[in-house]
Amino acid sequence: MDQLKALPLGRQLILGAGILLLIDSFLDWQHVSATINGVTVASGGQSAWHGFWGVLMCLMVVAIVAWTAARAFNVTLPEQVPDGLATLALGVLIPVFALIKAISDSYVHWPAWIGVILGAAIAYGAWQVFAASGEKLPQMPARDTTA
Q: Which of 32, 45, 90, 139 satisfies CB 3.0 to 4.6 Å to 107 for a cystine?
């Protein structure tokens, strides 16, 4: 537990919001109910794990939580993968995919909007991790315009 408390704020945000988003992903992000004379006769819903954008977002959440937890517990990870840049890439894509999932589905339910907010918290934490890493965003090579 002391290792988790000693983590920088960015990594704590990623772990906390990531675990909450994983829990939220199992709630109904889409929900519909049928009522007759004010009495609900049928209702149903689907979690975030339904559909392309939801599955992709959920897999990225699992990846960023596992990556951050591995860093927190000093697990040896590949040195070729830049920590800050990988965290930033996943952290930015998660809220984008959560928002796409929320606005592209019908009958959006409140857990979808909570998921978008938690995704934004992950993105903020990922930005803090990237900024603290000292890494730079990759640059495109300059084109030769003399020819």
A: 32
Q: For the packed helices 83-104 and 52-72, what is the interaxial angle rounded to 10 degrees? A: 150
Q: Where are the alpha helices (DSSP H) in 83-143?
A: 83-104, 110-133
- Domains and their CATH numbers in the chain: 7-133 (1.20.120)
| 66 touches 94 (CB < 8 A) | no
Which of 34-38, 57-61, 85-89 has the least mean pLDDT?
34-38
Q: State the sign of the Cα–Cα–Cα–Cα dihedral 114, 15, 9, 138.
A: negative
Q: Are 29 and 112 in contact (CB under 8 A)?
A: yes
